């Protein structure tokens, strides 16, 4: 397949950072790469009040995502125009504009429309747990999975363009044991954890669910420059702000994927080749 393309589907600006090394490598190899974002992260925290207000945060975070994407070489950024739902149990969950309150048929259709226009070979999104259970992460995983199947079906959303079926759907996540290791590191160093009180045995992916492991130590510095474009989210005590260079490289030099649908990978294919056999 000569025209290789990847569409990474996420919930908020900065979610793409989990696969930024792989996306950059795809760009370097000549693939088309796009990022789809369901919301603009309107209810995220604001690290510095000079950067945004609650009223302007969505617009500011959109531009942060575009700059972060540009650092890794990605120019195609799509928004579904839903509102950030906030953390589980927060008042924002009840906002009718919130992504988790979207009509499922409509939400899947918006993703299908982008798939049919962009024509990705690979579709990437969160695993079913959303890594740590954020309701928007879970929703984008669920609806991207449905869109993977619907996009190539001529009976689904005929008004949204010619059918196009991506070859593979991957869930990108953290390996569960690495997630626990990260949580332990934060606790040992007195760093506030974004993981809260969630059950880590139910989050991320078990080691035997991982089908592809991509090592990107050569892009560790580039990944840091990319994440630093999300300035509103770099709270002084956040994990990404306080990780030293050594720990940054340990936790940010490997990216994990699970093939969950589509064309099987040939036996014996390299564990870092998500396009193998296509």
Report on the architecture of this protein.
This protein has 278 residues and is of the alpha/beta class. The chain has a single domain (5-262), classed as LmbE-like (Rossmann fold), CATH 3.40.50. Helices cover 33% and strands 16% of the residues. It has 9 helices and 7 strands; from the N terminus they run βαβαβαβααβαβαααβ. It has helices spanning 20-28, 57-71, 104-118, 130-133, 135-151, 176-188, 220-227, 239-242, 245-252, and strands at 5-10, 32-39, 76-82, 122-126, 168-173, 212-215, 254-262. It has a 7-stranded mixed beta sheet, with helices on both faces. Strand 1 (5-10), helix 1 and strand 2 form a beta-alpha-beta unit. Helix 2 (57-71) runs antiparallel to helix 7 (220-227) and helix 3 crosses helix 5 (135-151). The chain is globular and about 50 Å long. The N and C termini lie close together (6 Å).
Write the layout of secondary structure elements.
Layout: E1 5-10, H1 20-28, E2 32-39, H2 57-71, E3 76-82, H3 104-118, E4 122-126, H4 130-133, H5 135-151, E5 168-173, H6 176-188, E6 212-215, H7 220-227, H8 239-242, H9 245-252, E7 254-262
Helix pairs in contact: 2-7, 3-5
List keywords for this structure.
single chain, alpha/beta, 7 strands, globular
Please outline what is shown here.
It contains nine helices and seven strands; from the N terminus they run βαβαβαβααβαβαααβ. Strands 3-2-1-4-5-7-6 form a seven-stranded mixed beta sheet, with helices on both faces.
């Amino acid at each position: 397949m000569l025209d290789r393309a990847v569409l990474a589907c996420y919930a908020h600006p900065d979610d793409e950072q989990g696969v930024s090394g792989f996306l950059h490598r795809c760009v370097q190899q000549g693939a088309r790469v796009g990022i789809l974002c369901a919301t603009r992260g309107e209810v995220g925290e604001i690290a510095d009040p000079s950067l945004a207000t609650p009223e302007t945060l969505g617009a500011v975070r959109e531009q942060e995502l575009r700059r972060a994407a540009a650092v890794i070489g990605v120019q195609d950024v799509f928004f579904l125009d839903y509102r950030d739902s906030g953390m589980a149990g927060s008042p924002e969950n009840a906002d009718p504009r919130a992504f988790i309150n979207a009509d499922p048929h409509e939400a899947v259709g918006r993703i299908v429309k982008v798939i049919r226009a962009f024509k990705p070979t690979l579709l990437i999104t969160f695993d079913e747990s959303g890594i740590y259970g954020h309701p928007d992460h879970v929703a984008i995983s669920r609806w991207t999975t449905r869109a993977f199947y619907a996009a190539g079906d001529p009976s689904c959303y005929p008004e949204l363009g010619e059918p196009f079926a991506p070859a593979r759907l991957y869930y990108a996540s953290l390996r569960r044991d690495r997630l626990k290791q990260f949580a332990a590191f934060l606790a040992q160093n007195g760093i506030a954890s974004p993981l809260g009180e969630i059950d880590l045995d139910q989050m991320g992916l078990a080691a035997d669910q991982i089908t592809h492991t991509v090592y990107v130590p050569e892009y560790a510095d580039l990944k840091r420059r990319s994440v630093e474009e999300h300035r509103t989210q770099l709270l002084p005590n956040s994990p990404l702000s306080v990780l030293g260079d050594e720990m940054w490289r340990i936790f940010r030099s490997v990216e994990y994927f699970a093939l969950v649908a589509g064309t099987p990978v040939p036996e014996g294919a390299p564990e870092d080749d998500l396009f193998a056999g296509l």
